Amino acid sequence: MLFLLKSQKLRLEMIRDALEAKAPRTYRQLKMQGKLDEFVRDHEAAMMEAYNPCEAIIGAQRAGKEQTDGLKMIQDIYLALKRHKQEVLETWLEFSD
Predict the structure, then answer these.
(1) What are phi and psi of 93, to 5 degrees?
(2) Residue 47, Cβ neighbours under 10 Å: how many?
(3) Contacts of 79 by beta carbon, 8 Å cutoff, 6+ apart
(4) Tens of pLDDT along 3-28?
(5) Are the beta carbons of 80 and 56 closer than 8 angstroms?
(6) How far apart, in whole angstroms, are the C-alpha atoms of residue 89 and residue 17?
(7) CA distance 83 to 86
(8) Where do runs of H (alpha helix) occur along 1-97?
């Protein structure tokens, strides 16, 4: 999948849920200050800016430069995209108090 999550609404929900589960004190403070939605939107924007599937594709293509098997190249690109997506999610959904 080229997109991290197609729906911004789902991405915002995912960030909000991760923040509430992993950093409940921060979540409560932001909510009480009325800044939770702003924080979540800003975090989502930064996460999407960091998510660059083109880098993963180019890296996979360079790694398989000598390959002549098209199917193998496609598989390598798919795996590179999957790894990149996972790395972005792990990085941007990590919260702590």
Answers:
(1) -105, 15
(2) 19
(3) 60
(4) 566 789 999 999 999 999 999 999 99
(5) yes
(6) 13
(7) 5
(8) 8-22, 24-33, 36-50, 53-63, 70-92
